[in-house]
Amino acid sequence: MKTILVVDDDIYIGNMLEEILSKEGYCVLRAYSGTEALMVLSKSRPDLMLLDLMLPGLSGEKILPAAEGVPVIIVSAKADVTDKVSLLMNGAADYVTKPFNVSELLARIAVQLRQCDARNASEISACGLTLCPDTLTVTVSDQEVHLTRTECAVLKLLMQNEGRPVGRTTILDRISLDTPDCTERSLKQHISNIRKKLSAADNTDHIEAVYGIGFKLK
């Protein structure tokens, strides 16, 4: 069951959203102020957040950075295009203006949750690393590291064989469709680049060279 956090100080709107979302099969959390929203986010990570902007205490704009990793749909009476653009550029997933159409809001919620599921399905986690091939990024110690397409393909293969050595020839064969330009000579440089990028994030060498065989993630 997906969990949605509704952050709105308007009791009527909050109650209406909770009733509608519950009927749709969602678990609903409530927060009536910016401060309360931060408390909820510190204890749990909902699958999606509906966020009003004009809140007592902290405004919705100040809550947005704390919801990193959670898709946020702004639900606000502010209709200025500048406000919408600014919020979308600063992390909001979508923007719905009050008064809103319930069917449209439910559709937008479904789209965001579906996109989030698709992103999560493509992610690979191993040895403290989380790789997202779609965005060519790997997260290590809560830091996002950007990779080239070849680096991503190599790291993905090593993560899929967590703790087991993978031969140089096997690496070249397996990644040849995605990165046909990679050669045995350049593979060493790609491995070196990956090690440097990961080490810069957490001061740890994540890849071990296995003599006579190839490389493994450790």
Query: Rounded to an integer, what's the Rg over CA atoms?
Result: 22 Å
Q: Which residue ranges are poorly predicted, with pLDDT under 50 across at least 5 consecutive positions?
A: none
Q: What would the principal axes of the Cα set say about the shape?
A: elongated
| Classification by helices and strands | alpha/beta
- Largest sheet entry: 5 strands, parallel
> Mean pLDDT across all residues, rounded?
90
The level 1 CATH classification of the largest domain is Alpha Beta
State the end-to-end CA separation. 35 Å
What is the helix tally? 8
> What percent of residues adopt helix (DSSP H or I)?
40-55%
User: How would you spell out the order of helices and strands?
Assistant: EHEHEHEHEHEEEEHEHHEE
Give the strand content.
Answer: 15-25%
What would the CATH topology of the largest domain be? Rossmann fold
Number of strands: 12
The CATH fourth-level homologous superfamily of the largest domain: Response regulator
- The name of the CATH architecture of the largest domain is 3-Layer(aba) Sandwich
Summarize the structure.
The protein has helices at 11-23, 34-43, 60-63, 81-89, 102-122, 149-160, 168-175, 184-202; strands spanning 3-7, 27-31, 48-51, 72-76, 94-97, 124-126, 129-132, 137-140, 143-146, 166-167, 207-210, 214-217.
Overview of this protein structure:
The protein has helices spanning 11-23, 34-43, 60-63, 81-89, 102-122, 149-160, 168-175, 184-202, and strands at residues 3-7, 27-31, 48-51, 72-76, 94-97, 124-126, 129-132, 137-140, 143-146, 166-167, 207-210, 214-217. The protein starts with a strand and ends with a strand. With 218 residues, it is an alpha/beta fold. The protein is elongated and about 70 Å long. The strands form three sheets. The protein has a five-stranded parallel β-sheet with strand order 2-1-3-4-5, with helices on both faces. Strands 6-7-8-9 form a four-stranded antiparallel β-sheet. It is built from eight helices and twelve strands. It has two domains: 3-121, Rossmann fold (3-Layer(aba) Sandwich); 124-217, Winged helix-like DNA-binding domain superfamily/Winged helix DNA-binding domain (Arc Repressor Mutant, subunit A, Orthogonal Bundle), CATH 1.10.10. The longest helix is centred in the middle third of the chain and has 21 residues, at 102-122. Helix 6 (149-160) crosses helix 8 (184-202).
